[in-house]
TrEMBL record, chains A, B:
Protein name: L-erythro-3,5-diaminohexanoate dehydrogenase
Xref: InterPro entries: ADH-like_C, KDD_N, NAD(P)-bd_dom_sf, Zn_alcohol_dh
Presence of the UniProt keyword Transmembrane helix in the record: no
EC number annotated for this UniProt entry: 1.4.1.11
Span of domain L-erythro-3,5-diaminohexanoate dehydrogenase N-terminal: 11-158
A Pfam entry, by short name: ADH_zinc_N
Keywords: Oxidoreductase
Length: 346, 346
């Protein structure tokens, strides 16, 4: 008889009591599954870039030291949550066992190869052996097991795309999928950081949804990356500007939109202090989607009030229904984007 | 001839160049107005509570020292932006002069008494004399002038409500006004911190909009404040719980909603670590409005992803169209709430 579990995995939290698995300091990584859990035979860990950089530094770059630190983290916490950065990563593996209570509820089958789309910082993990550390792309092959909770999200890896390509775009899948849901025909859309990894996917989706009556503006900083985006033909207008300069960007957007500004602005940069730029570029009754993790809640809230803008600002939830399918589909549809992402990440 | 100004007041920024008035270190507080500015004869400053607490401490509570510090801030920055907390406050005064370019564009008249609803941290201010410091309610009467930019928001003070009552509710006007826009008939709505200053206004608006087919749940921590809310009859259910305990609150909400959870959750607390509670209390395709300034962007974004929730999370913009009117109207309509707010704040 399997034990009954909570959908969020609170039944595995050891301390502090009452916490969820992510904020918890320690969780139970015993691999006997509860009735609503999925056991995964792990192949590769994709350590979060901030976390892996810290581990490499602490190890002075030595592979054996890196292994030791990683094993130490999992032994201490029952999950691969870097105690310094707090972050995790994701993993690829094969479904080994499915809890009885999930029968008929999940479309997974034993033997399916999947990527987890919830953070390693909340995933029960046991490492039996570290097989290979690929230092430059933050990937670590292991022998080990992991648990996916009932509420945990995942994507079955497609057979028609290279694994590493799928992994790299799945990392930012929330952004293009939200773009697909937010943009309507005829919209003027600005993507800040539009020539980056999540940004190009957002431009592509925005252009498809806004259609011929809409306008997609791709804002980037380096000419090199803007040119790459131009070749893939993912936007109607490309501008090079510093997204931390609100007035400069506002004036450029005013020129492009005849003073009307944008209906939707999607923020995909990886630097702080771009809230005000997003607000001033957008119509006062427009919408801003902040995918950037460098967004400050108070800067956005007080910034909009300060200029009397009634803009709706959305926190970039990493998950939205169907986000993996929507994003992988872009790699199938756009030959140009696929070439760019294969060259960069696969 | 008046000089032409930028709607956001960038023409008054002295340093750093290219900044907006709020992040700027120093702005020009010369009281000769530009063509799109409004000159205000200031009566009272309402210093932001965090800022005033710091000033009082630095002054060791001495009135003369408080005055000295305040005069020093304005002399240095051209605005009353506390260099330690970064925050400002609001002001009441009388319209003295209106820029030529605003004629026909503004409904203000010379002689109108108004409250500014943009922060003092971006408002050009000149203090000629500090008349009285009311230490316990953060109010300071002065002789002086201020400038309202074209994009600056304000409310004409109503003649039928006590000034201090109006001021106290205008401070949180964004929350009930957004509630009014978000809640639809039949919705189940949770207001976290529902017995507080902004929370009670949100409950009231939510109950009005959700109607007899909806359900409003007021969550507070102290029984005393919950009882006060109960007397005003602003919700359908009142629960006492610690909003930093996600699982505990989730279970209570599940019980009240027969496991369906809420359509909309409005977060009005003043403490950190309540993002996960808001997420777990809300339907996976529901909506969360974070009014609390203690909200962490990353905790909200990663938290929702971690439990596979597709919830839409909105950053609590302090401004929304008509927010002052919507909020003052509640004080006219609800005798019970008006009594509570008069006793607490006026
Ligand atoms: N919400 C979530 O769940 C979630 C999940 C994953 C990632 N993220 C966040 O998404 C963001 C983007 O990730 P990514 O993988 O797409 O990163 P990325 O590929 O590095 O893209 C960032 C882009 O921002 C541009 N940029 C940087 N500074 C700029 C400036 N001052 N002005 C204009 N553009 C500037 C860069 O332009 P150039 O290329 O021209 O230099 C780059 O293309 C990150 O903040 C990340 O934390 C969020
Ligand atoms: N977005 C904006 O533009 C804007 C503008 C103004 C204010 N705000 C923010 O709005 C928030 C609320 O402001 P306010 O004036 O309404 O504050 P308030 O009157 O102090 O109300 C806060 C409420 O939170 C409740 N609370 C505190 N800790 C709690 C816990 N652990 N569990 C459950 N309830 C808890 C308190 O309950 P008890 O009364 O029972 O102790 C209190 O009623 C603040 O964070 C403020 O920064 C935002």
């Amino acid at each position: 008889m399997m034990k009954k579990g909570c959908p969020y995995g609170t039944h595995r939290v050891i301390e502090p009591a009452g916490a969820l698995p992510q904020p918890a300091r320690k969780i139970d990584n015993n691999m006997e599954i509860f009735d609503n859990e999925i056991l995964i035979d792990v192949q590769t860990l994709n350590i979060d870039s901030a976390s892996f950089t810290q581990i490499k530094e602490q190890a002075g770059g030595e592979i054996e030291k890196i292994k030791e630190i990683m094993l130490g983290i999992v032994a201490d916490r029952g999950k691969h949550q870097n105690p310094v950065t707090g972050s995790g990563g994701m993993l690829i593996g094969t479904v080994e066992k499915i809890g009885a209570a999930l029968e008929g509820k999940t479309d997974l089958k034993v033997g399916d190869k999947l990527a987890t789309l919830v953070s390693l910082s909340l995933t029960p993990l046991r490492i039996d052996e570290i097989l290979e550390v690929r230092k430059n792309i933050d990937q670590v092959d292991i022998k080990g097991k992991a648990i996916l909770f009932e509420s945990g999200i995942y994507a079955v890896l497609p057979s028609d795309l290279p694994e590493n390509l799928a992994l790299s775009v799945l990392d930012v899948a929330g952004a293009p999928a939200q773009t697909a849901k937010l943009v309507k025909p005829g919209d003027t859309v600005l993507v800040i950081g539009g020539a980056g990894k999540s940004g190009m996917l957002c431009c592509y989706e925005a252009k498809r949804r806004a259609g011929v009556t809409g306008k997609v503006i791709c804002l980037g900083s380096s000419e090199k990356n803007l040119n790459r985006a131009r070749k893939a033909n993912i936007a109607d207008v490309y501008i090079s500007a510093d997204a931390t300069k609100p007035v400069e960007v506002m004036e450029k957007i005013a020129e492009i939109t005849n003073g009307e500004m944008t209906d939707i602005t999607i923020n995909c940069v990886n630097v702080p202090d771009t809230e005000m730029t997003s607000i001033l570029a957008t119509k006062k009754d427009g919408l801003i989607y902040f995918f950037s993790m460098a967004t400050s809640f108070t800067k956005a809230a007080l910034g909009a009030e300060g200029v009397g803008s009634d803009v709706t600002m959305i926190v970039g939830n990493g998950y939205t229904k169907g986000h993996a399918q929507i994003t992988l589909q872009i790699m199938r549809e756009s030959k140009e984007l696929r070439e760019i992402y294969e060259e960069l990440y696969a």
